[in-house]
Amino acid sequence: MSMGVDVCITYERSFYFNLPEVQSALHANHTRLPYEWSMCSNLLNYSGIDANMDMLPILKRIVQNKIPVWIFSGDQDSVIPLTSSRTLVQEIAKDLNLKTTVPYRAWFHKDQVGGWVTEYENLLTFATVRGAAHMVAYAQPSRALHMFRRFVRGQRLPNKPHSSTDN
Ligand SMILES: *[C@@H]1O[C@H](CO)[C@@H](O)[C@H](O)[C@H]1NC(C)=O
Ligand SMILES: *[C@@H]1O[C@H](CO)[C@@H](O)[C@H](O)[C@H]1NC(C)=O
């Protein structure tokens, strides 16, 4: 029995990403590939060992090159709990001697707490999304979109319920 869990999501995903209007909106498949989109097509020769590669050195290099990085986690993610991601982000900040510019505090969206956030030197941000599971955008679409919008606009997550750019 499913308790609010969509057990058909793997099928819906294939259907959705193969819709021409979705591909067009994502600027994907411009070359009109002669096969359908699928989750793991085996076209790329991935090695299972690669999944265990340490990504921290790469993230550090990105931050060292002054490219803003946001790492986020649903606070109900039982696959990768937020505590582990938060610890790793703290480690990066410590290794790179980044000062905390925003101490761990709540961020807001639509008059509610959207999650919690920490920021290091306007470069490295760790944010949680309240009520989100492993697939944040699926579990909390409005909060996820708000967070993404703030990221692409280079704006900090709001620290109070009412914000002029809160839309
Ligand atoms: C790419 O687009 C074509 C239609 O132009 C479609 O037939 C094909 O399934 C698509 N392939 C992928 C990988 O999205
Ligand atoms: C994929 O990679 C493995 C290991 O590097 C190699 O042995 C194999 O031949 C590759 N397969 C293809 C289809 O390229």
TrEMBL record:
Q: Which InterPro entries match?
A: AB_hydrolase_fold, Peptidase_S10
Please name one Pfam family that this protein belongs to: Peptidase_S10
Give the family this protein belongs to, as stated in its UniProt record: Belongs to the peptidase S10 family.
Q: What is this protein called?
A: Serine carboxypeptidase-like 42
